[in-house]
Amino acid sequence: MDVVSALTSALPATAVITDPDSMDAYRWDRANDPDAGVPVAVVRATSTAEVQTVVRIAAEAKVPIVPRGAGSGLSGGSSAIAGGIVLSLDTMREISIDPVTRMATVQPGAFNAEVKAAAAEHGLWYPPDPSSFEFCSIGGNIATNAGGLCCVKYGVTTDYVLGMTVVLADGRAVKLGGPRLKDVAGLPLTKLFVGSEGTLGVITEVTLRLIPAQLPPTTVVAMFPELADATNAVLDIAKAMRPSMLEFMDKPSINAVEDELKMGLDREAEGMLVIQSDEPGEHSSVQAKIIEEICNNNSASECYLTADPDEGEAFVTARRIAIPAVEKKGALLLEDVGVPLPKLGDLVLGIEKIAADRQVTIAVIAHAGDGNTHPLLVLDPKDEDQQKRAQIAYGEVMDLATGLGGTITGEHGVGRLKAPWLAPYLGEDVMELNHRIKQALDPDNIFNPGSVYTGLV
C-alpha cells in the first residue's frame, strides 16, 4: 500500500505535506531530539473524520503515527519517526463556551491562552497554567497532564477534563465522559487518556470545566542567601496555608532572568520565591503578611509585598521566562522531577551537589508548592566532554529524585528523553500493566512507538 497516495486521495490537497523542507518544522518539539526521523508525510487534520481517515490508512499499512499539537513539548514526545506519519492537530482550534454550565468545548489545537481568553469573556477562568501557556496547545496539555504556576491551589489539567472524543487505533471515534460533573458509569477511561502522551489514541475534542474568574492576587517576592532557607520557607508556607502560587528560582535562573529583563533582581541570592494569595477581600493581604513573616523568619535577605496587579505580574513574568532565559546560555537538557514536598530541600541541595561534582550548570526552577522541579542542564554544543558529564548528571538527578520517593516526570511527560528510566521507576509489575493497556488499545503499536514505552513490537 502506498501510504502517501492513499492519504492524498482521501484528504484535501492542502492537508497532506510531503515536501521535506516543509515537513522539517514538524519533526521536533522543544526537546530537539537528535534522533528525530523524517516522516513520509505530515497531515494537518481539520476534523475528527479526517483524523479517522488517517488512522485507518496507517492501521492498514501498519505505519506509525505521531500525534502532534503545538510542538511545545519538552520531552521528545512528538519527535517524528522515519517512515511514519506526523498527524498535526494545529489547525483544529475551535472553542465554544457554555457560561451556564461553566464548560468549554475545545479542539486540541487551541492554545491554552486562547481558552483562557474565551473563558474570560464570560467572567470565567481555565486555571491550568503552564509557563508556555501562550503557545502550548490544549491537546498537548492533556497528553502530558500539564500543571503550571497555579496548580498548587487549583490543580492540574486532569482536574478540568470532563470528557473527550478519541480516535482509536482501528479508526473508531469514541466519546468518553461529557458535560456532566458527576458520572461514575463504567471505568474512568477519560482519565486514562490524560497523560497518555499520544500512545493510546488521538484526542480530537475535549470538554473542560471552568471556574469563576480568579480574584486579583497579592504578591510576595522573597530573596534568600541560602537554598535551604528558601526551601524551608516553602514548607512553612505550605503548613500554614494554600497560596495560589508558590514558585522557586535558584541563583543560575535568577541571573539568567536578570540578564534578560534587568529588573533589579538580587544576583547574589541563592534562592527566590514568588508567592501569591488570591483570597477574597482583606484575606489576601492578611495571608500575604503571614507569608512575608514566614520568609523573614527563614532568613530572607529581602521581602517585597505588593497588591498592585501589574507589579505582581512582572514577577510572575520573570518566573515564566526562566526556561527561555537559561536557554540563551546554551543548549538545554530539561527535566521535571518531582518529590514529596518535605523532600524538596534534599532535592534542590542534591542537584546543587551534582552540578558541582560534574562541573555543569544546572539551573533549577520549580512549582515549589507541589514539589515539582525543572532542573535545566546547560550544554556547550562545542564541548563533547562537558556534554558527556551533563548526560551523566541528567541520570543522577533522576536517580536522586526517585531515591527521595519522587518521580521522573511531574508534567512534561516521559516522551523519548526519559523512556529509559520509566521501567526502573515504575517497577516490573506496574510496567507490565502499562504494556497490557497499551497493547489492548493499540495492538499494532502504531501510536507514537518509541515514546514512553520502549521494547514494544
UniProtKB/TrEMBL annotation:
Record's keyword terms, sorted: FAD, Flavoprotein, Oxidoreductase
Membrane-spanning intervals of the chain: none
Entry EC no(s): 1.1.3.15
Annotated coiled-coil segments of the chain: none
Known cofactor(s): FAD
Cross-referenced InterPro entries: FAD-bd_oxidored_4_C (IPR004113), FAD-bd_PCMH (IPR016166), FAD-bd_PCMH-like_sf (IPR036318), FAD-bd_PCMH_sub2 (IPR016169), FAD-linked_Oxase-like_C (IPR016164), FAD-linked_OxidoTrans_Type4 (IPR051914), Oxid_FAD_bind_N (IPR006094), Vanillyl_alc_oxidase_C-sub2 (IPR016171)
Sequence ranges assigned to domain FAD-binding PCMH-type in this UniProt record: 35-213
UniProt-listed Pfam families: FAD-oxidase_C, FAD_binding_4
GO molecular function annotation: (S)-2-hydroxy-acid oxidase activity; FAD binding
Main enzyme class: oxidoreductase
Family to which this protein belongs: Belongs to the FAD-binding oxidoreductase/transferase type 4 family.
Xref: PANTHER family: GLYCOLATE OXIDASE SUBUNIT GLCD
Name listed for the protein in its UniProt record: Glycolate oxidase
Organism of derivation: Brevibacterium linens ATCC 9172
